[in-house]
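SEQUENCE-TO-STRUCTURE ENTRY
===========================

Backbone structure tokens: a row of integers, each naming the local backbone shape at its residue.

Task: work out the structure tokens from the sequence, keeping to the layout shown below.
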Amino acid sequence: MPDTTTQLDMPFILPSQAQKHITHNEALLVLDALVHLTILSELSAPPTTPAEGNRHLVGAGATGEWTGKTGCVAAWQDGAWTFLTVKTGWRAWFAETSRLRVFDGATWRDVPLPDQGTLSLLGINAVADATNRLSLSSPASLFNHAGNGHQIKINKAAATDTASLLFQSNWTGFAEMGLAGNTEFSIKISDGTTWRTGLAISPTGRVSRPNQPAARAYRTGTTFTPTSGQQSGFTTYALNQGSFGLGASAAGGGNAITVPAAGIYLVTLNLVVTTSSGHGAVLLRNGTETLMTLTGITGGAQSQGASGVFSLSAGDTLTLQHSGTAQVTLGAGKTELSLTLL
């Protein structure tokens, strides 16, 4: 019969042994050191002022009283160090790092999660809460296939709920994509305060860009006869998407069109006249730069039109400069300027 137990090396009380209480107390000290094992820290040299019951993991290159005890648990009991040889399966709470670990026969590892199970909250290097029940703080995330394809599913309870990806900077949302309050896929953008839809796809597959700059501008009235060299503008938008504006008044009436955003625009100018002695109309940017020119011959009612692609800047103004003599027809569907950001 061996003198100690197989697992914990506690001494047996032998039949012929005197002072059996000593052996019994030694066994109690072993239990006291191992039951609910808490390791304060991993050290290579014993601390100078250990407290009764302190336990440490002896690190590599142990010195002093710990020489040759690397990997053991050193317990300070009754004014001396007791060394316990760690065995596979032992678990301990590492107080210095607040981790529960298990010894696998070679190293101490964090206790693994079960292969199957249900968790109400899970934080990975982060704190989960009742709303963010899965919380992750990491430089990147990887969702890999298991042999074929891979899908990420975001499901919502009702059509009026939201199923989306929200992109934030310093916890303020600036972009969102998904099903936001309906069954229409959309991409939205924010300046930190106001949200606007940049792209929307209906359940039937139709694509719209509700904030893409597009406009049709005309001047109210019936006709006017501009003086040669005079500039004129517009008064009304038949279509205004993307916040086109009306700028300064033009000498020949109407106001300059103001461009809301920089980009490449398709610009179309239509000019309708009732009579002409030979005329021209130039579309000017910022009052001086020619973008396109229309000309007409002497005669009765006629119309001219031109289109072009131009790079415009936010705040640019557009006006018409007239030449010759003509009676210009006003109103929607007559003399108009159309712009679309491509």
